[in-house]
Specification:
The chain has 952 residues and is α/β, with parallel strands linked by helices. It is built from 29 helices and 29 strands. The strands form 8 sheets. Strands 20, 21, 22, 23, 24, 27, 28 and 29 form an 8-stranded mixed beta sheet that branches. Strands 2-1-3-4-5-6 form a 6-stranded mixed beta sheet. The two termini are 54 Å apart.
Length: 952
């Protein structure tokens, strides 16, 4: 049964359009015709989830399958979550508006270590038991609950901390895996299999991990508890298909409000800190023609004004300059911009600069990661100072005056010299890359805290929050006094929890559950970090797992000898000498100054310690790794393709500051991925770059103007004014109408809406002007526009208007409204009202609506204090703004919730509605009604019937 969403989305709910499921591209398949009904749930607010590319791709793929239905759900904002609980309404899927319990399977994207608390919040709001054990018990008692699974990077990396909450985990790419799961589900439903039997069938699919069929040993390792399931679970690998990226076009602005198309999946650069680079191998380039066609078709189908090409390392897609230029040429007259995510600065050149931006220059982000050449070699960044300088200089020469840089602190082997090298690098770049030869280049820095990740060579490393805090203070002191610099630091407490959970085992399930109970949702991290951190630490204490819960008798998990006195001595010597790295090349540091490896280590990795200092990474000429590297890890039963022995060898190379080349372009590094199960690197060669056809030049010609009378009815009333303007921009693009643009640096389409309609108000009388660069038939214009508008924005009338005539907003004089109001009892004392109304007018308490309306019409003044945008106050006579008022309908008194009597009426009024701010809002009429009736008046419903233009 569908949830009555409109009754939930009352005035106090912010951004109600995020819950409507009415976007362009939303798929609505017949419920009864589907054999398997999915919900893909993204455990973040709509603005984040709806723009996630993986979410869109899998949604499109599942709905393309026969007899498979896929709906969507997102984490409701706190206001709606509170309302769902207070009204005992279950969380619903946005398209069908059905409770999540009515579906067969719910899939969560788990892409962040701390995102599991949001998943528990969504399950609880849906009325679904949080653990697989509870759900299995309920199923044995006859309850029909959906299967709950997770996918995404974090789920693929180490699902053990979350094992209690999911019936199964989808490992790796889902494009082929999820349809296979759907087939097994359909067969299982047809054969009426039990929940356990169905999960056992699913466990036979490569890439499906069913935690309940595996047990954790005392050493943290995980093993099957029955012979029918594999010892190790294979990560799935799929080939990207750009066509599935074209889909949802939300009406509200999302965090990535653009068309995004993947050009390369996987990265083989081999950065030793980078988990995505390890978990997405091999590299798979998309054929250039597929990319070009997807972008061209996608921009036309969606109406977006910006697109992004996505990859972990876009500049390693050698065809990027050719593909970007081809797209830019094809869309030259459409005012389109291209953006790219963080790029390899060593590959940034004029060819890439040529394709970026458009009329709106996009931001530019590079990630040097470390401030010295030695540290970049340790992490295998593959970036020299010369390459860094060349890339930044190219950006400056091509017009960028602000660049964003990413750095990390707390990396293995890092000394204070390396930390201060970050500031020295920025200082050096500002000195070498002057704007116009004089002005200082602006930098926006993000300083992140390194947290070791599973399946990387640094997965055995231990770091310290105390050291993070100290190094942040060190950098803040060094940055003090530097100009044209903005620095953001990741909070140490967030990094601590990421590491604690990310490398944990099944014992952390109790911690996550308790942290959620204590209010540690993702929103809490950003709105009240102290509260969230306290919830997590309290949960750890109550669960009996301290920060050193993985400490064993032989000591902390630490590859390196702890020689704190030596490190302190080195630090003081370096500070005394005031050494700085020479640019553009770095002097080699003597390896002999670093301590040798400790001969022994415990059997499990230790998460961040809040008190122990960070040991230095030994860089002795021939260190030998301890045998403890062979001890089991909680994620060893996951076959990601990366050979654990290769990770040990790569760690050895890190200790020697030795780099490993990118195997996509040089020799094989023997990581273990390439083969039958995972495939091989697929690299597209560089292509000839098409000749640049020129930048978009806005066509400012004005050949024709159409005035359109349209409505905003049904659920479109919950789409705000700014979102409506963005919708019109996309509509004219999809309709391929020759719209005229404004001039300047940021040309916009000449579409002018006469007056902003308040959120939640329906209308049958809105007006907008459209100016075109060429004359077209009125009926053709109307037909094209209507074909691309949502059905709840109907077109009532279109007229051709002289270009020299005033715009609709200039002619606007008044508006007619139909409002439904309710009198709910005597008006309580309200000093604010007394102060605003200098001469209260009232009639007998038992007067009816007709008498109240007549009194308002006959009264000469209703004074109210109006505060302007500048903060000034002025007395306004609202009666001067009321042109006409009449009672349309009066309904008999009814008993409202709580037994309170209500008298309801429908009124029609015409009032001022001018662009100079002379307005009579429905709330103003309520104010007048309260003055004459001395009753509390509620505004139940508002509809704007028409806008009235004055033609002089």
């Amino acid at each position: 049964m569908a949830v009555k969403v409109e009754e939930l989305l009352t005035a106090e709910i912010n951004q109600p359009a995020r819950y409507l499921g009415n976007e362009l591209g939303a798929v609505r398949k017949p419920w009864d015709a589907a054999s398997v009904r999915w919900v893909l749930t993204y455990p973040e607010v709509y603005e984040v989830g709806a723009s996630n590319l993986g979410h869109i791709i899998l949604y499109n793929i599942l709905n393309a399958g026969p007899r498979q239905l896929c709906d969507r759900a997102y984490l409701p904002a706190p206001d709606l979550a509170a309302k769902l609980r207070s009204t005992k309404t279950p969380l619903f899927a946005v398209e069908s508006r059905r409770s999540l319990t009515e579906f067969d399977i719910l899939g969560f994207s788990l892409s962040y270590e701390l995102g599991a608390t949001n998943i528990l919040e969504m399950l609880d709001l849906a009325g679904i038991p949080l653990t697989w054990q509870e759900r299995a018990t309920n199923a044995q008692n006859g309850a029909d609950l959906p299967l709950i699974f997770a996918g995404g990077q974090t789920a693929t990396s180490n699902p053990e901390p979350y094992a209690d909450f999911f019936d199964f985990i989808a490992m790796g790419d889902g494009e082929e895996l999820l349809p296979e799961i759907g087939l097994i589900l359909a067969e299982g439903k047809a054969n009426n299999l039990s929940r356990e039997a169905l999960l056992l069938d699913l466990a036979q699919i490569p890439g499906v991990y069913v935690p309940q069929f595996y047990d954790m040993a005392a050493d943290g390792s995980v093993h099957p508890n029955r012979p029918q399931v594999p010892d190790r679970i294979l990560r799935r690998v799929a080939t990207p298909i750009p066509a599935y990226s074209i889909g949802l076009v939300p009406y509200v602005q999302t965090v990535h409000d653009r068309l995004t198309v993947e050009i390369r999946r996987g990265c083989t650069r081999g950065c030793r800190f980078c988990q995505p680079g390890m978990l997405t191998r091999p590299a798979r380039d998309v054929e250039p023609q597929q990319v070009v066609e997807a972008i061209e078709q996608g921009m036309k189908a969606t109406g977006h004004s910006e697109f992004s090409l996505l990859s972990l390392s876009c500049s390693d897609y050698l065809a990027l300059p050719a593909v970007g230029m081809e797209i830019k040429n094809r869309l030259k007259d459409k005012n389109i911009s291209l953006s790219l995510p963080s790029q390899r600065v060593d590959r940034f050149d004029d060819n890439i600069a040529d394709i970026l931006g458009g009329t709106r220059q996009s931001g530019l982000t590079f990630a040097p990661e470390a401030g010295t050449q030695r540290m970049r070699d340790i992490v295998n960044k593959g970036l020299t100072n010369e390459e860094l300088l060349r890339g930044v200089k190219t950006a400056v020469d091509r017009g960028w005056d602000k660049i964003k840089l990413y750095f990390m602190i707390g990396l293995p082997g890092e000394t204070d010299f390396d930390v201060l090298g970050i500031a020295e690098t920025v200082r050096w770049l500002q000195r070498e890359c002057r704007l116009d030869g004089r002005r200082t280049l602006n930098f926006n820095l993000t300083i992140s805290n390194f947290t070791p990740k599973p399946h990387t060579p640094f997965q055995w490393h231990s770091v310290s929050t105390t050291e993070f805090s100290r190094k942040q203070r060190l950098l803040k002191g060094e940055f003090r006094g530097m100009r044209n610099l903005k620095v953001n630091y990741t909070d140490v407490r967030i990094s601590a929890m990421e590491d604690f959970v990310g490398r944990g085992d099944r014992r952390l399930g109790a911690v996550i559950h308790r942290a959620w109970e204590l209010g540690a949702g993702m929103d809490a991290w950003w709105e009240s970090l102290d509260k969230a951190y306290k919830a997590w630490t309290q949960a750890i204490d109550e669960s009996g797992l301290t920060w050193k819960y993985r400490q064993v008798e032989s000591g902390e998990w630490n590859l390196f000898e702890k020689e704190e006195e030596k490190e302190e001595g080195r630090r003081k010597k370096e500070e005394g000498r005031g050494e700085k790295e020479n640019f553009p090349t770095s002097p080699p540091l003597p390896l002999s100054s670093y301590p040798s490896l400790s001969p022994s280590s415990p059997s499990l990795p230790l998460p961040l310690s809040p008190s122990s200092p960070s040991p230095s990474l030994p860089l002795s000429p021939s260190p030998s790794l301890p045998l403890s590297l062979d001890q089991p890890l909680p994620w060893d039963h996951l076959d990601t393709g990366i050979d654990k022995n290769w990770l040990k060898l790569d760690l050895q190379k890190a200790l020697e500051a030795a780099t490993v080349p990118d195997c996509s372009f040089e020799g094989c590094s023997r990581c273990g991925v390439c083969g039958t199960d995972f495939g091989h690197n697929v690299v597209v060669d560089a292509l000839p770059i098409p000749e640049f056809a020129g930048e978009f030049v806005p066509n400012t010609e004005r050949k024709q103007r159409f005035r359109v009378w349209f409505g905003k009815v049904g659920d479109m009333a919950l789409v705000g004014h700014l979102d409506l303007l963005r919708l019109f921009d996309r509509v004219v693009r999809r309709a391929d109408l020759p719209i005229s643009f404004t001039g300047g640096f940021h040309p916009n389409p000449r579409i002018s809406v006469a007056n902003a309609l308040p959120l939640g108000v329906t209308s049958t009388g809105e007006i907008a002007d459209f100016e075109l660069t060429e004359s077209i038939d009125l009926d053709v214009f109307r037909e094209k526009l209507a074909a691309t508008l949502p059905e709840n924005i109907p077109i009532y009338r279109v007229e051709s208007i002289d270009l020299k005539a005033p715009s609709a907003s200039q002619l606007l004089e008044a508006a007619e409204y139909m409002i439904t109001v309710a009198a709910t009892g005597s008006l309580a004392e309200n000093p604010e009202l007394e102060g605003e109304n200098s001469a209260p007018v009232c009639v007998a308490a038992d007067a009816n609506w007709e008498a109240w309306v007549r009194t308002i019409v006959q009264t000469e003044a209703f004074w109210r204090v109006h505060t302007t945008k500048s903060g000034k106050t002025q007395d306004v006579n609202l009666r001067d703004r009321l042109h006409k008022l009449e009672l349309v309908e009066q309904q008999p008194e009814t008993s409202a919730n709580g037994g309170k009597s209500e008298s309801i009426a429908v009124l029609r009024y015409t009032g001022s509605c001018r662009s100079d701010g002379n307005l009579l809002k429905p709330e103003h009429l309520v104010f007048m009604l309260e003055q004459v009736s001395q009753q509390e008046i509620q505004l139940v419903q508002v509809q704007r019937s028409q806008l009235i233009l004055s033609y002089g």
